[in-house]
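Notes to self, DUF4253 domain-containing protein:
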Amino acid sequence: MNGQPLEKVHVLFIPTQHGWEVPAYLRWGNWNACPPPEYHVAALRQWHDRFGAELVGMTGDRMDVHVASPPASRDAALGTAKEIYRYCPDIVDQGTGTLSALAAAMVSGHWWNFWWD
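result:
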């Protein structure tokens, strides 16, 4: 993403009260390195319970999550970064470059962005 407004956006109304269930309703995932829908649901639910994470956007290969209470300590952030790397290796391999850099970004921000090739 380049920070510019998108020309076209689609809004979907999904019959659930929990955003972490959306990948199951859309059967989103299970291609290339992207996990199947049930993995997304499990990860998003766990992060919702632990950090107040809410799925707020999806594209064909990307998810954007707002995190109300990101990990506060270096150790907690590094542990969560390792967990996120197992879920979405591209975030490090093609993004931050290291787990430490991912952990630092998690402590200092409220947005987690995931993408799969």
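- Helices lie at 22-26, 37-51, 74-87, 90-96, 99-108.
- The chain has a mean pLDDT of 93.
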